[in-house]
Amino acid sequence: MSPRAVPEALADKLTAAARDFASSFDAVRMDDIAAASGVPRATLYYYFAGKDDVLAFLLGSMLDDLRVSVATAVEVGGSARTRLEAVVRAQLAHLAANPATSQLLLMNLGRAGRAGEIAGGIEAGFHGPVREILRDGISTGEIVDVDVELSATAVYAAVTIVGLQSLVVAGAIDVDGITGRLFPLFWSGLAA
């Protein structure tokens, strides 16, 4: 990520500009990012060494936002079922709120070149909280004794893929509709 703190206004411009190069980042140059975002090229180079650093910054910001969204969802309290459904809804809402960045980053994860940071962000933002919900549900008898790690990964992957497919095919995510159809599939395999 950028060694300098990126001002919020600059971050917002880069996030908004992501839709202009979401499908063809290989061909994008810093000049293209500058033109799409309205940020002078020199300013971009002040904060980023190149376009891969811009991509890494967008990824980090997206994962930070996911962490906040999921943490807020977990705080709803209640049963494991209620909290897990809130997390699924939060992840879909996060993808829906950031369609261009979601597509850009997920199509270019290898390019971002920071597998450890990506894994750490997903761990903090999703897997950790979901594992906690699953363990709580197992301990209260609400959830069958499942492989917690595998289950958390399966939920993350399924929600992400379904959300991205909806973005690509429909151009938007019906958060409540997809949650209402997808969550019962998870719950039927988890409920005691």
Q: How would you summarize what this structure contains?
A:
By secondary structure, this protein is mainly α. The protein has helices spanning 8-17, 30-37, 41-47, 51-74, 80-97, 99-107, 109-112, 115-140, 148-170, 175-190. Helices cover 76% and strands 0% of the residues.
List its traits.
10 helices, 76% helix, 192 residues, mainly alpha
Question: Any overview of this molecule?
Answer:
The chain is mainly α and about 190 residues long. It is built from 10 helices and no strands. The longest helix has 26 residues, at about 115-140. The relative contact order is 0.13.
DSSP helix count?
10
Largest sheet: none
Say how many strands there are. 0
Overall 3D form: elongated
Ranges with pLDDT <50 over ≥5 residues? none
Any chance you could write out the topology, listing elements then pairs?
Layout (H helix, E strand, L loop, with lengths): L7 H10 L12 H8 L3 H7 L3 H24 L5 H18 L1 H9 L1 H4 L2 H26 L7 H23 L4 H16 L2
